[in-house]
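Researcher: Next entry in the queue.
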Amino acid sequence: MKQALLFDHFQANTLMGQHVEVFEASHLRTWRTVFGLPESVVPYPGELSSMALAMAMRAYLTVVSPRPPGNVHARQQFQMQGLPEIGETITTQVVCLGKEIRRERRYVDLQVHASGRASRPLFMGEMRLIWAA
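Model: Structure for this entry, 133 residues:
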């Protein structure tokens, strides 16, 4: 079993890894079941933005792993530059922006940024986490 990532493992301004996935129609169908929407509805921008956020979190969870129990997702910002298209391959990179200890808590700042077909920019997000170990 792989050891959990500890605060000491994070290095500022370092690419931690990337996650590549194809935005499948099945992802959209699954998302729609949460809201009770029929399959025949044409995707709308808000729905695609929500799917982009889900892809960003999936990339974070895949790359920054395994995590120790007890981390707290303290803050997040998210900016859309383009909407993902069904069938498009999305490449999301996860970068450690920095880390600090304040008031005896370990903070880790991460950035995710994704691109699609022909490297077109899709979204960028920043997360601040209180790291448990």
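Model: The radius of gyration is 16 Å.
Researcher: Noted, moving on.
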